[in-house]
Amino acid sequence: MGSLNVEKKWVFPLVMSSLICVFLLATSLNMGLISSLHTMSSFLSIFPSHGMPNQTRISFAEDKFKQFSPPSPRIPRFAYLISGSRGDLEKLWRTLQSLYHPLNHYVLHLDLESPADERLELVSRVEKEPMFAKFGNVFMITKANMVTYRGPTMVSNTLHACAILLKRTRDWDWFINLSASDYPLVTQDDLLSTFFGLNRDLNFIEHTSDLGWKEGQRAMPLIIDPGLYQTTKSDVFWVTPRRALPTAFKLFTGSAWMILSRSFVEYLIWGWDNLPRTLLMYYSNFLSSPEGYFQTVVCNSPEYVQTLVNHDMHYIAWDNPPTQHPHTLSLNDSNDMIQSGAAFARKFKRDDPVLDKIDKELLHRKSGSFTPGGWCSGNPPCSKVGNLNKLKPGPGAQRLQRLVSGLVMSAKHGENQCQ
Predict the structure, then answer these.
(1) Coil, strand, or helix at residue 253?
(2) Roughly what angle, to the nearest 10 degrees, separates helices 262-270 and 153-168?
(3) 257: closest CA among 308, 211, 205?
(4) CA-based nearest residue to 244, from 225, 216, 223, 224
(5) Please, which residues have CB within 8 angstroms of residue 66's CB and are 6 or more apart in sequence?
């Protein structure tokens, strides 16, 4: 009887403990079920929904960057790379002055072949120019790259400048690469006013899939660019065996000079679907890769084909038969340059009289000063800054507008779109 009383004393605590355990177990299972359902719902949401209108679809990172920017009501801004080599200091400085506008951004590069005193002199001039100090929009690559113009180092240098511009500021719409041998045929106000009404995603890249003789002499040979691993410049050299044409992508060729949208520049640098990196490795052994890399990337990217305009915005004259380098322009080419409607021309010798003619008749620029625009104020002109949002386009804008309008119209109808 005593033992029975002891057993009864343990019944109540045992029952209560069991009830509490059951309650906790049920609660944890319920919370686990809710969590599992939530996890399953999130997992299922990555798949396309069929007949489930209320289901939210997850966006991938790639989708975010493929959304093209809407038209902007503000004045566009350009980001320039102006590059040169040994002996190009004065040419580069003159080209910079002719192109300068406070709204734009500029990266300058004298390659590793340039003497140290030339690069230091350029740094000193940039630092001492009050306008550059005021706006902080002129930057020099002080750690110079070696650039062999027939090899991939020119592509690498261009991408380096793009990366710098993306890091320094988001306040630009198009990237333009020029050399010290280039010169503008229109003022920056002409260029800004012409591009003001354009879709900011347009890319001006001369391109064709007709490789012609380049198929056998550039695409199939393998070259090594010593500029990738040496500190002194030397020409590329060929190695064996030759290679077949690729089957994973189609090759295109064109001009090494271009105007690229910010969206496309971001794609080149970030390469979220890996195509830009794959093609960069392929073109590292390609002769004159600057004339193929950008064309092949854009034409093998379905989301960017629709943004192409088949022109490099340059006037370039070639000898007959054409050689490796274009004809050097002179006063005899003045009328053809103007009639072309192009924004830029190349190539020019240092201080050639034709540059003085362009300054006087097209840019209205005095020696040693900036090209006048609506932003200019003070005496002498452009020594002070007036209204940055004021544009004063001239006849050059009309010529450029005619050219660009026709090109954009052709692009809209699908003409020359990577065919």
Answers:
(1) strand
(2) 110
(3) 205
(4) 216
(5) 303
Report the relative pairing of strands 105-110 and 203-204 from DSSP bridges.
unpaired
Distance of alpha carbon 285 from the chain centroid: 22
Provide the residue type at 271 as one letter. Answer: G
Torsion of CA 110, 112, 117, 118, to 10 degrees: -20
Are 164 and 107 in contact, with CB atoms under 8 Å apart?
yes
The DSSP annotation for 366-390 comes to: -TTSPPP-TTEESSSTTSEE--TT-
pLDDT given for residue 70 in this prediction: 54
Who contacts 369 (Cβ-Cβ below 8 Å, separation ≥6)?
A: 97, 380, 381, 382
- Given a cut of 50, the residues of the chain with pLDDT beneath it are 1-11, 14-15, 22-62, 64-66
Distance (Å, whole) CA 406 – CA 192 = 18
**How many C-beta neighbours within 10 Å does residue 135 have?**
16
Distance separating alpha carbons of residues 220 and 239, to the nearest angstrom: 11
Distance, in Å, from the CA atom of 81 to the CA atom of 345, rounded to the nearest integer, reads 15
Instruction: Report how far apart the first and last C-alpha atoms of the chain are (Å, whole number).
Output: 102
Contact 184, 98 (CB under 8 A): yes
Judged by phi (left if over 0) then psi (alpha if -120 to 50, else beta), residue 138 lies in beta
DSSP string spanning 197-225?
A: TS-TT-EE--EES--TTHIIIIISSEEE-
Burial class (CB in 10 A: 0-12, 13-18, 19+), 306: middle
Distance CA 4, CA 350 (A): 116
Q: Give, in order, the Cα–Cα distances in Å from 396 to each of 188, 189, 293, 402.
A: 10, 9, 31, 10
Q: How many whole angstroms separate alpha carbon 131 and alpha carbon 120?
A: 19
Q: Which two tokens stand for residue 9?
A: 């004393």
- Those residues whose C-beta lies under 8 Å from the C-beta of residue 332, and which sit 6 or more positions away, are none
Which secondary-structure segment (H or E) carries 83?
Answer: strand 78-84
Say how far apart CA 128 and CA 197 lie, in whole Å.
35
Residue 174, φ and ψ in degrees, nearest 5: -135, 145
Reading the block at residue 277, the tokens are 């990196």
User: Looking at residue 73, what DSSP letter applies?
Assistant: S
